[in-house]
Amino acid sequence: MDFSNPTLITFVVYIVAMILIGLVAYRATKNFDDYILGGRSLGSFVTALSAGASDMSGWLLMGLPGAIFVAGLSESWIAIGLIAGAWLNWLFVAGRLRVHTE
Question: Is the pTM of this model over 0.70?
Fold first, then answer.
C-alpha cells in the first residue's frame, strides 16, 4: 500500500478529525439534554440550519435532481418552493416549537 497517495492521506486526516470531534463532544456531554439538544447552548440560526439540513438532505440529493432529470429544467421551481417553505417554517413554527420544548 502506498502511503503517499493523497486520497489515503486525506481519508486518514478526515477520520482522525472526526474521532477528535467525537471525543470533544463526548467530554462536553453531561446528561441526555446535552446530547440531544446541545444543552440549549446553540443559537437559533444553528438550530434552524441543522433542522433544514436534516429535513432536506435526501430530497435535495436525490429527489430534486431526479425530478429535473425526468421532467426537465422546469422542475427547478421546486427549489424555490422548498426555500419559501423553509423560510415560512422558520418564521411561524420555530419560535413556538422552541417554547414548547423547553
Answer: no
